[in-house]
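so my prof wants the structure for this chain in the tokens format not the other one, which i didnt know existed until like an hour ago. anyway here's the sequence
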Amino acid sequence: MAGPGTPLLSEPTVWSARLLAHLDKTYVYVAALTNRNYEGEARAGGTVKAFYVSDVTVSDYTGGWSDSDWAALSDNEVTIQIDQAKKILVKVPDVRDQFSVIDLIDQATQRMAVAIGDAIDQYVASKYAEVASANQYGDDTTPVTVGLGNGETRPTVALVRLREVLAEARAPMTNPRVVVPVWFATMLSLELGSRATQLGDRATQEGMVAPGFLGTFEGLQVYVSPNVPNTTGTKYKVLAGDPMITFASAIEKVETTRLPNDFATGVKALYVYGAKLPRGQYLALGTFNRGSYA
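here's what i got, hopefully its the right format
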């Protein structure tokens, strides 16, 4: 016999709504470095379109202009493949009278969101490969050793150098962010100590305002993630800039079914997504090795 919460457990829209709500709370890379500026509907195996306007040139005014002086704005189209898909299959036991079915759904979708969000963040982080080669600070051949030891580059210096790369590339910097590995965030906190910095003040006064958000330093919003790409603990790929990666996603399906050989409801979900960096010159990429903590 099914438990009292079975009708609610078997309602796909309830699971879908709670999963979406929790996904927004688990992303780091998606929250920090992506936008949703695309047209179309994200469907498994399909595509959506992202657009950006061409650069504008200026010239000296000499008292007039000719027809040839007019520069046409072009909207450049970028196709984003929705070629990523994650499935989750969960068996949910019938809820007894003493348990809240709402709490069970909420906790289950929270864990589902963590699992999906982690995979998506790793995927978005991999878009570092699309950053322009001229926008790099350090590379695989000569990574920058970031640490607090003698001869090592201080974390604050590494952040300022990434901001310098963005400025020299004339990248938009209306809301620049950077996603750093956990060890980098630890070293940054150790370096700053109790100094009255913007980073320390905001972190203390406001707390966590977004997933992985640490604070603001020299105009850069600093996020921390365990998903920063690296090569066996070296050559960490740190992305910085405005949210320039276009990301499209959707919950393709959520279905529920009564499991024939158990007192339980099966929940299956399919989440599809894709992403692209349309303009590689608008992000900066640092390649960092971990130095010492003192």
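also thought this was worth mentioning. Confidence is low (pLDDT under 50) at residues 1-5, 201-209.
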